[in-house]
Design a protein that fits this description.
Structural class: mainly alpha
Radius of gyration: 20 Å
Strand content: under 5%
Largest sheet: none
Order of helices and strands: HHHHH
Helix content: over 70%
Number of domains: 1
Low-confidence stretches: none
Shape: elongated
Length: 143
Amino acid sequence: MVFELMRFGMVGVFATVLHYSIYWVLQHWINMNVAYTIGYFLSFLCNFYLTSHFTFKSRATVKRGVGFSGAHLTNYLNHMILLNFFVWLGIPQQWAPLPVYCIAVPVNFLLVRFVFTHGRKNEQTKSEENSYNNVEQDKTLLQ
């Protein structure tokens, strides 16, 4: 889990920098919430690919995509509520995403980790059982 957390952190930093950069540029010309949403969506696409292949070393399946989308929908709502709350508290909209990330990132790690690891042990057990059965069948054929 330590290495997953480190890889998650690397992917998360990349996705967060991408998200914040897009938001930073767009919020000068369009509504803050729209700019944040566009940045979130674009970073989401990169994040899914990198999380699948790099963080959890898994295939990007439809099932995981749906789970990842659900986790990120929850995360997005968390982001939007926190963003508007921090702006309401008086934090300038340019800087308001920073405390949002401090709260939302750990929550998102737990949600995404669940999506990519839930059922993995069952898959491994089935694979091991199939291997064992194949070996037993080979032994029977050799006798």
